[in-house]
Amino acid sequence: MAIAIEFPKEYGYVVLVLVSYAFLNMWMSLQVGNARKKYRVPYPNLYASEERNKDANLFNCVQRGHQNSLEFMPLFFALLLVSGLQYPLIVSGFGTSYIIGRFFYFKGYSSGIPDKRVKAAMLSFLSLFGLMICTALFGVNLVIKETN
């Protein structure tokens, strides 16, 4: 069975949130590149070795902040794009707060003191949870439509 997708006029906000995250990801990538130069961590090493680099923890915190954001990116994009089909404004709000949380998560982590990321992580996870609820409601609504 095929389902025709109609995009609500507000769906453009969802797309703009996605693009905003792409810019944040690019900025984080640049921060990792700058940290590579600053702490002398050559490619292809993903992380610095503490045995060979006294600044390994500082670099690894920057790298880990970006890596963690990459790990959650597919989930964030899927939830955002799917739930935005039914709840574009609410989802855009959750997406924006997720991005703000991710920015401060990265800033806190890249400080070299990983505990500074915790408050921002809470904002990101609450936002992600909101997106999960919206996506689940979207799925339930599709099932209900199908049974009627």
TrEMBL record:
A GO cellular component annotation in the UniProt record: mitochondrial outer membrane
Domain of life: Eukaryota
Reactions mediated catalytically: 15-deoxy-Delta(12,14)-prostaglandin J2 + glutathione = 15-deoxy-Delta(12,14)-prostaglandin J2-S-(R)-glutathione; leukotriene C4 = leukotriene A4 + glutathione
GO biological process: leukotriene metabolic process; lipid metabolic process
rRNA-binding among keywords: no
Transmembrane found in the keyword field: yes
Transmembrane stretches, start-end: 12-30, 75-100, 120-144
MF (Gene Ontology): glutathione peroxidase activity; glutathione transferase activity; leukotriene-C4 synthase activity
Bilayer topology annotation: Multi-pass membrane protein
EC number in record: 4.4.1.20
Pathway the protein takes part in: Lipid metabolism; arachidonate metabolism; Lipid metabolism; leukotriene C4 biosynthesis
Subcellular location: Mitochondrion outer membrane
Major subcellular site: mitochondrion
InterPro entries: MAPEG, MAPEG-like_dom_sf, Membr-assoc_MAPEG
Record's keyword terms, sorted: Lipid metabolism, Lipoprotein, Lyase, Membrane, Mitochondrion, Mitochondrion outer membrane, Oxidoreductase, Palmitate, Transferase, Transmembrane, Transmembrane helix
Database matches in PANTHER family: MICROSOMAL GLUTATHIONE S-TRANSFERASE
The protein's name: Glutathione S-transferase 3, mitochondrial
Lineage, uppermost ranks: Eukaryota, Viridiplantae, Streptophyta, Embryophyta, Tracheophyta
